[in-house]
Every structure is written in structure tokens, then in C-alpha cells.
Amino acid sequence: MNSEFQSYYNIIKELNINFEDIKNYNNSNIMKKYLYHLENSSKKGFQEGIISAFSCYYSYYSLAKKNINQLSKNNSSIYKKWCEDLLSIAYKNVIITFENIINDFNDIENMNVYFAKSLNFENQIFDHYYENGE
Question: What range(s) does the Thiaminase-2/PQQC domain occupy (predicted)?
Fold first, then answer.
């Protein structure tokens, strides 16, 4: 996961975004609800917390895999760079680690509920930020 955070750090620096602005950013209501869901999932139990967090990694990886070639037409190279980082071996190893942990879960049907709920939040967040130009 360090490679993912390093990637975000590099992108933030490249865009000359002030880190204080990030700390003071007011999250959307949907993001607040998603963070609340992640917090409650992790309080519920290890499996619930892992599967809820995995949806974020999984959705980003899937989006990058699907869209990397289309991003060559984008005027901003930042999205292509972000997708390249999400498709890196280091990030793929994070996905594999999550999958290996999840494969040992004994109540996968219940875990699917948490995964689906988290994916739903991810989709709502993508829609919100796309529609609002944030």
C-alpha cells in the first residue's frame, strides 16, 4: 500500500496542490457516509473491515485496467499516470494479498453484502465528483 500512497503523494506534488488544502477539504456527504461505513465495518470485525476496504482497491484497479488505453487521448497526463500506478506490480500485489486473505473467510455470502455496499458507495462517489467537476 505504500506504493499507492507514494503515487498519490507524487501526483499531489506534480499538481502543486497544497497539503494544507487537502487537510481542510470538506468531503461530500456521500464520502462522509462511505467513511462512516468503512469505520463501522472495521468495528464489526476483521473480515467485514477487510472486505469493505478491498472494494476501493478493486474498483480502482478495475477502472484503470478498463480505461488505460482510452486515457492516451486525454489532455491531462495525470489520469494516465494514476492508472499506470494502479496497474503496477506493487499495486497488483496489494490486490493479490487482499484476495488471499479473503479466500480464507468462512462467511463469504455475508461478506458479499459488505463488498456490494462498499462498491455502491464507490460508484456514488465517482458519480458525485464527475457530476460536480471536483
Answer: 3-131
Short-list 40, 50, 55, 26, CA closest to 123: 55
- Per-residue pLDDT tens over the stretch 101-133: 999 998 888 889 999 999 999 989 888 877 876
Please, what are the domains in the chain?
A: 2-7+34-132 (1.20.910.10)
Contact 41, 128 (CB under 8 A): no
Place of cell 500512497: 5
CA distance 57 to 51: 10
| φ, ψ at 53 (rounded to 5°) | -70, -35
Which residue numbers in the chain have pLDDT < 70?
A: 1-5, 8, 22-25, 133-134
